[in-house]
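During the reporting period the student researcher (J.K.) took over the structure-prediction task from the postdoctoral fellow and processed the backlog of single-chain submissions. One of the processed entries is reproduced below for the supervisory committee.
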Amino acid sequence: MLKILTQGVLVIALSLNVAFAFELKGSAAEKGLAIAQESERRNTGWQDSRATMKMTLKNKAGDTSERDISIKSLEVEDDGDKSLTVFNSPRDVKGTAFLSFSHAVTPDEQWLYLPALKRVKRIASKNKSGPFMGSEFAFEDLSSFEVEKYTYNYLGTEQVNGLDCYKSELTPAYKHSGYSKTIAWIDQEEFRIQKIEYYDRKKKLLKTQTFHDYKKYLDQFWRAHKMVMTNHQVGKSTELLWSDYQFRTGLNDKDFNKNSLKRAR
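J.K. obtained the following structure tokens:
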């Protein structure tokens, strides 16, 4: 009995250490940066992943259309992640493939393969604020989050989705962003993004993205299985439903080669 009690006390002590390991200190800028760094730290080490996704587009009148998508991702040490997005249906977009190389400091690299034209088109940095395949997501929204891409300002705490969250303002430090700033809510318990507001270049609220139905993989990495991007200015929205996550499947750089976009399936 004593041994069991001792083990229980040890577990509680370890839990408390984890809970209090993160402490906000310094200026608003330093606090905002620390929150972003902790969120990134907790999502490091997954190596590679595969998933499927259903994208639902909804217009102002409430009409919807659906697209089935496959996604591969590769974690890159000391740089941004690589991702390959392939549209499987409907017929008018089937075979369309999008390749993205995110970078921490230098401009991201992105390419789009359009089967109707049978050619690969590079997305110029100045065009990354444009909509991705008719959705409410911009090309720049599809890049992996990298701490170095922003400056930070901690705004306090608020509840989102019933969770206590840190609230921070992020200002893009890279050129050609379509946003003057974003505001992000990250929960205090697991450092998962719960909500993001996007403000246009005129500093008016443009879009809100919400994150739902988080599940943990490999006992460490959280993934939201539902994301909704709502465009307040045009009355449209895009819903993403994720499924079939697999991690550490053996993907490597050769699986993310722009020359193989035409063969992506």
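The committee noted the following: The chain has a mean pLDDT of 90.
J.K. will present the remaining backlog at the next meeting.
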